[in-house]
Amino acid sequence: MTAESTVPTPAGRPRGLGPSPVSVLPQRAGAAGGGPRLPARRTAARPDSPLPLLVADGTAALPGSLMLTGAPHQPLLTALLVGTSLLLRPKPHPAAARPVSGVLDELPALCARIAVVWLALAALLAAYAPAHALSARTLLAGFLLHAATGCAGRGAVHRRRRRALSNRPRAALVVGPAATAQRVASALLRHPGCGVRPVGVVTDDPDGTTGLPVLSTGEEARRAVVQNGVRDVLAVAPAVRPRQAALLRTLAESGCTVWEVDADAHAHAGAPPPHAPAQHTQHTPHAPHRIAGFSCRPLEPASRRPGGAGKRMLDVTVSGVLLLLLSPLLLACAAVLRGVGGPGVLFRQERVGRDGGTFTLLKFRTHRPADERESATRWSVADDRRMPWFCRFLRRTSLDELLQLWNVFRGDMSLVGPRPERPYFVARFSQAYPGYAARHRAPGGITGLAQINGLRGDTSIEDRARFDNAYIDDWSLWQDVCILLRTAAALVRPTGS
Question: Where is the Bacterial sugar transferase domain (predicted)?
Answer without folding.
Answer: 311-492
